[in-house]
Amino acid sequence: MATDLDGTLVGDAEALQELLSFYSEQAYDVALVYVTGRHLRSALSLAERENLPVPDVLITDVGAEIHIGSDLEKDLRWDEMMTEGWQPEAVSRLAEAAEGLTLQEIPTRCRLSYHADGPETAGRFEQSLKDSGIPHTFVFSSGRDVDVLPAAAGKGRALSYVFDKFGVRDARILIAGDSGNDRDMLELGHPAVIVGNAHPELRRTEALPHVFRASRRCAGGIREAWEHFFS
Ligand SMILES: [Mg+2]
Boundaries of CATH 3.40.50.1000 in the chain? Predict the structure, then answer.
């Protein structure tokens, strides 16, 4: 099960407990992959605060970093791929010239993150990046979060890389999310769920046969989808 954290796995403590005990009752093991926009330290403090199970893989920074196993070893091959063509200074200069963007201080160099004062600001910045020809991935989420990532990054690409790395092909897979930065991983083609509390930017996504729209919030929606696809 590959899931976003804020607003997806996390957000309804009771439903989370229900989901975890449902998994523990199954005859099979459920491997956990967390795929978050948070940076590593922030993800770990959330996991501690919410008492989340230790994941098998932790993808942070909207897919710009991958950490493997309980000792969270950084995937160095992925890291290398993230430096290719990445020009953070050039992105910064464009952001400074744009109006309505505030830089978020994040302790990593493989990603630049901003708060936009609205979708129009984000759209203008997206266009100026496109026009500049700087290789990048642009992600707009939660109505205000703008992430500019290396061209090869993104939650969907990082998750595909993890599936390939571990040779996951015939396992049952469920992918869960609630906002715009989850879109690319929800559209990979595996069974996926948009939880009931999803942001409008994700609700407006066109209907896809493998994407289930849950009525329950957060982990409750994951449980609902699991039963929809797998029981
Ligand atoms: Mg989220």
Answer: 2-81+153-230
